[in-house]
Specification:
mainly beta; four-stranded antiparallel β-sheet; about 0% helix; about 110 residues; single chain
């Protein structure tokens, strides 16, 4: 069975930065969106993984990973923060958006 997690995987050993990964008999580093870190939160039965990743400008964006591709889910204020915290088997993703003193729950529908 596959599991999504975040830790200092063997794939991030060169940088020392934590990366999200999927375990399916071996580590598969999920990568980032230009920044040093990523974190996996959940995986659905279809293998869609959600979490967050750092950008090259050190912002945190909600992301989804599927079949080796990373999808940046961020929207709104470029200086804001988005987090993806869970995904169902339809592919709907839930998370949060933060910008200044504003915070909101978010649903990304597939």
């Amino acid at each position: 069975s596959s599991a999504a997690s975040s830790t200092r995987s063997p794939c991030s050993a060169l940088t020392g930065a934590p990366h999200g990964f999927v375990w399916n008999g071996s580590f598969s580093d999920l990568g980032t969106i230009g920044g040093p870190t990523s974190s996996a939160a959940r995986i659905n039965d279809d293998g869609l993984v959600v979490g967050q990743a750092g950008t090259a400008t050190f912002r945190t964006h909600a992301v989804a990973w599927k079949d080796g591709e990373v999808i940046d889910l961020h929207f709104g204020d470029p200086n804001g923060t988005t987090l993806a915290t869970s995904v169902n088997n339809r592919g709907d993703i839930v998370g949060s958006y933060f910008s200044g003193s504003t915070s909101s729950a978010v649903v990304w529908r597939r």
